[in-house]
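*** Backbone structure tokens ***
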Amino acid sequence: MRFTLLPLILLMVVGCTPRIFYSGEKYPPYQPHEIEVFFDENKIDQPYEVIGTLADSGASGAKSEKIQQAMIDRAKAVGADAIVFHDVDVAHNEVGAVLIRKAKAIRYHYPDN
């Protein structure tokens, strides 16, 4: 009994972990570094460039807050200064509909770069 529960528990834990996909440029992260979070790109008040895009797989079943935090962590890992959550798509599969969150990774223009 104990051996049949272990794979099931592992599957549940892995299944609830958000998978974040990133496409774009990567830079060394600044240390220490906090990512600014935006939901409107027009609210960014300094020069910047979009260095990449992020999306979750929509299949993890994780809570929205956990997915957003995973996307923030991924943006930080690729050297972004901010993240702009900008879109939610609905994808349909054999189980039903899933939400796919999208964001942009932002890198600010500083005088030294």
Q: What stands out?
A: Residues 8-14 have pLDDT under 50 and may be disordered. Residues 2 and 113 are 56 Å apart (CA to CA).
